[in-house]
Amino acid sequence: MSAAPLPDSWDDKAFAEAHRRLREQPSALSDADLGMFLVADGAGFAERAAQARAAGVPPQGADGTLSDQDGAKPASMGFVSAMVVAAASGFRTLRVSRRLLRLEEKVRALEAASLPRYEGVHTPGKTYPVGSLTTRSGALWLATEPTDKTPGQGATPWKLVVKSGTVI
Fold first, then answer.
1. What is the spatial distance between Cα 121 and Cα 143, in angstroms, rounded to a whole number?
2. Hey, how many other C-beta atoms are within 10 angstroms of the C-beta on 12?
3. What pLDDT digit, counting tens, does each position of 2-39 carry?
4. In sequence order, what are the beta bridge partners of 163?
5. What does pTM read for this prediction?
6. What radius of gyration do the chain's Cα atoms show?
7. What number does CATH give the domain 117-167?
8. What is the CB neighbour count within 10 angstroms for residue 54?
9. Most C-beta atoms within 10 A of its C-beta, which of 27, 39, 89, 143?
């Protein structure tokens, strides 16, 4: 097996697809798939996946898993060499990259959430999105749905948060 490239980022969907290809069509495995196996499942599994790709047949276990005896088989010199290259490339970097990707996903989700945002003094006729905060007559109001209505005048989708300096 030549040195399998380590993935630049981690994609759980791509990893699941690689396992599906291993079970159903091992000849379709890419070097990137082998790199993911190397990182996530270890050297023995990646070596078996490479052998399955070369032979075009799934590993012995129909589900693509290894038996206890598989780990006892010695790895080829080519595979050991690939492991050394991969380790030098930085497994630590990959773990950090995976953690950063998860954090970036969380930040995107938080940024997309409808969080309260102060829009300043109320402007009649302006449309305010959900979560907008505005002040009118010394009171702070929160929009509970998109609206162009004036807070405090009849039934509106505004919720009074602070009335003239008093928290409600």
1. 13
2. 8
3. 444 555 555 677 778 888 888 888 888 888 888 777 77
4. 166
5. 0.36
6. 28
7. 2.10.10.20
8. 12
9. 143
